[in-house]
Write a structure and sequence with these properties.
Layout lengths: L17 H12 L5 E6 L6 H6 L2 E6 L6 H7 L7 E2 L29 E2 L3
């Protein structure tokens, strides 16, 4: 996701940019293994891209260095995290809250991993 601040990042559609979706699709067609790293400050609509990826890492605003993300990708650090929100699978699910009658998120509240 391109950098934004406050209302300058407001969007009606939280899908990935068309060029990002095309890159993942083209790599998949070429048979290249894909590790998708999502750098954003909010849950994006990634349902299709997740299915095309061999691995997926959400890197919440990692800063300018990128060392922390590289440490995870190269196995130098074991990532952990639990979602403090529900991650929707489509725009028509926003907002999506635990207990909603039609609650069917991509990832539910509290979803995540922890290595010990």
């Amino acid at each position: 996701e391109i950098p934004y601040a406050e209302m300058m990042g407001d969007r009606d559609d939280l899908s990935l940019a068309p060029e990002d979706r095309a890159t993942i699709r083209n790599l998949r067609r070429a048979g290249i293994p894909i590790i998708t790293v999502l750098i954003s400050g909010r849950p994006m609509i990634i349902t299709d891209q997740l299915e095309m990826s061999d691995a997926f890492l959400a890197a919440w605003l990692p800063g300018t260095e990128g060392t922390g993300v590289a440490d995870v990708l190269f196995g130098d650090y074991r990532p952990s995290g639990k979602l403090p929100f529900t991650w929707p699978r489509a725009m028509d699910q926003i907002p999506s809250n635990t207990g909603d009658p039609d609650y069917d998120p991509l990832f539910p509240y509290g979803f995540g991993i922890t290595w010990e």
